[in-house]
């Protein structure tokens, strides 16, 4: 029986295997001091919302000192708190209150790059070519008669060359913004410093780490550096075009040595610290990051990217369960995060619509059905929460928040907007601060205006408006998470063999069956007691865009 019912208690080393983790984007969660930016004290004051929601852990996106060239992922000090967000004492208070409420705390670790304001990079600029300080980063002379051309054709994920020239003529690598110089993970100073960082936060009570750009640390820096040619090298689309593990800077085999070293740090604590990789790589490669002697879990983004199509989703689910099983890990599921269009909006777009193009239109083209988007979002969430493994929620999705697609150009903060020459609008629309109350200058986010403007429609989505409101999305999440905790059993599912076309139907245990109708017509509701539905059910039919949890009859 011990294997049948997983021990997910806070003291269990396996708490993460089927946990629900709630992502907090600190600058947009709650503002306690009234400066318009969310802060650590604001998060602490709102932790009762997360405890009442029923999640197991919160994941904090970066709260480190940063000039916000990339929303906090340009880190100037990996072992401190941005003064605008609080102090280390505030962080300790947050962790203490979270633990008192039974919540684990996961923090972002950003190992691929630093801010250009990091003391190491400032030292590198002062020290000049060939110095030990420059060896911590990736500096190279340029090509051309006078070194006026970048060392390679490598491209930044945010657009343009991945190289920036310094006043002394050398170039440094930045796979993201120019303000984010890449670290050289062949350098022992870098490796030792991050071991220190992992221990620093673990010693302060952090339970786990989300590893940013986990597949980007190792790079082929052998001379001469090689061009990527036409690999489409700004992202994971390049990986199938080269032998696995051999791309110049994505998902190289050498990266796993780094994470095996980190695992020794994690396992020195009781319970061991957990980790999850943000690795945009194909499933078989993703399993390597999730091995138990490395990070233990890796994000599966295929579920997020899948169309609202039963056959495609079934394939994604089946493949992810197999991938996780091969690693000895559990699957991960996510529908929204700080980098993508919120799923309540994404799922309302007509098939084949590029969310980036819709954003660029300000949300006007194509025309969309907001109600249908929310209906599908609720169904997709209940489906996700029924799957074996860990579910990662993004702040505000429990309110059904849509993407704010019509932010005016003058308020945009994401560097993608400028670096792509206004071709891609960026990620600000999913980072608009949360509404807590139905009134106030920022709907309860803080005492004053928020750093990104909230639309007036946010009042109807506020926590205050939805609490104890029958049928609200917030109450659906609360009920689902409470029920999920009671129903969890094992780490597998069994597909129902005779499910109608367009329907996903599986059982998790004798007491838990999940059925989702992704088709265009109602289908017969299977026999059994209805435990929960993503929308009200009438009669004996399961409407389109609806998920139901059942207790099957014997």
Assembly level: single chain
Structure classification: alpha/beta
Strand order of the largest sheet: 8-7-3-2-1-10-9
Low-pLDDT runs: 1-8
Query: Largest sheet, described in full?
Result: 7 strands, parallel
Mean pLDDT: 94
How many β strands by DSSP? 17
Shape: globular
Global Rg: 23 Å
How much strand? 5-15%
From the N-terminal CA to the C-terminal CA, the straight-line distance is 21 Å
How many separate helices?
16
> How much helical structure, as a percent, in the residues?
25-40%
Question: Any overview of this molecule?
Answer:
This protein has helices at residues 40-45, 47-53, 88-100, 119-127, 188-203, 255-266, 283-289, 302-305, 310-327, 343-346, 355-360, 370-386, 415-419, 458-461, 463-466, 473-487; strands spanning 20-24, 57-60, 104-109, 139-140, 163-165, 171-173, 208-211, 274-277, 332-334, 390-394, 494-495, 503-509, 512-517, 523-524, 529-533, 541-542, 546-551. The chain is α/β, with parallel strands linked by helices and 554 residues long. Residues 1-8 have low confidence and may be disordered.
């Amino acid at each position: 029986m011990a294997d049948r019912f997983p021990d997910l208690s806070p003291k269990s080393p396996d708490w993460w295997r089927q946990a629900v983790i709630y992502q907090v984007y600190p600058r947009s969660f709650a503002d306690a001091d009234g400066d318009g930016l969310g802060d650590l004290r604001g998060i602490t004051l709102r932790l009762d919302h997360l405890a009442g929601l029923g999640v197991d852990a919160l994941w904090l996106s970066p709260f480190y000192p940063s000039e916000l060239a990339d929303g906090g992922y340009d880190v100037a000090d990996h072992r401190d708190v941005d003064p605008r967000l609080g102090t280390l004492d505030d962080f300790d208070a947050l962790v203490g209150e979270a633990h008192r409420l039974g919540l684990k705390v996961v923090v972002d670790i950003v190992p691929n790059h630093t801010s250009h304001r990091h003391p190491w990079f400032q030292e590198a600029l002062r020290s000049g070519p060939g110095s030990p300080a420059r060896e911590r980063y990736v500096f190279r002379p340029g090509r051309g008669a006078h070194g006026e051309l970048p060392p390679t054709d490598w491209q930044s994920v945010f657009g343009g060359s991945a190289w920036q020239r310094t006043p002394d003529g050398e170039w440094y690598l930045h796979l993201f913004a120019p303000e984010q110089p890449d670290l050289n993970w062949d350098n022992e100073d870098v490796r030792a410093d991050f071991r220190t960082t992992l221990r620093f936060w673990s010693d302060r009570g952090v339970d786990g780490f989300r590893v940013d750009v986990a597949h980007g640390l190792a790079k082929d820096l052998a001379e001469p550096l090689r061009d990527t040619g036409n690999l489409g090298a700004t992202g994971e689309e390049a990986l199938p075009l080269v032998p696995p593990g051999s791309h110049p800077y994505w998902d190289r085999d050498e990266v796993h040595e780094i994470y095996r070293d980190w695992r020794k740090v994690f396992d020195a604590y009781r319970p061991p610290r957990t980790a999850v990789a943000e690795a945009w790589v194909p499933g078989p490669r993703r399993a390597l990051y999730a091995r138990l002697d490395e990070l233990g879990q890796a994000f599966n983004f295929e579920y997020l990217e899948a169309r609202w199509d039963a056959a495609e989703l079934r394939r994604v689910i089946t493949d992810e369960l197999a991938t996780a099983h091969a690693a000895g890990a559990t699957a991960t599921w996510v529908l929204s995060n700080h980098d993508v269009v919120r799923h309540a909006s994404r799922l309302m777009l007509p098939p084949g619509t590029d969310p980036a193009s819709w954003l660029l239109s300000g949300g006007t083209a194509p025309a969309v059905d907001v109600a249908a988007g929310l209906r599908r979002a609720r169904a997709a969430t209940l489906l996700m929460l029924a799957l074996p493994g860990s579910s990662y929620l993004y702040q505000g999705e429990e309110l059904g928040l849509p993407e704010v697609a019509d932010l005016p150009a003058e308020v945009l903060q994401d560097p993608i907007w400028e670096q792509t020459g206004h071709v891609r609008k960026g990620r600000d629309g999913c980072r608009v601060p949360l509404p807590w109350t139905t009134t106030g200058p920022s709907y309860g986010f803080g005492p004053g205006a928020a750093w990104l403007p909230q639309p007036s429609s946010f009042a109807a989505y506020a926590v205050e408006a939805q609490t104890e409101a029958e049928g609200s999305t917030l109450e659906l999440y609360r009920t689902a998470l409470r029920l999920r905790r009671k129903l969890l059993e094992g780490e597998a599912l069994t597909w129902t063999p005779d499910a109608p076309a367009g329907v996903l139907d599986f059982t998790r245990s004798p007491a838990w069956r999940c059925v989702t109708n992704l088709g265009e017509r109602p289908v017969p509701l299977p026999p059994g007691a209805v435990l929960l539905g993503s929308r009200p059910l009438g009669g004996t039919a399961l409407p389109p865009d609806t998920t139901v949890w059942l207790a099957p009859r014997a």
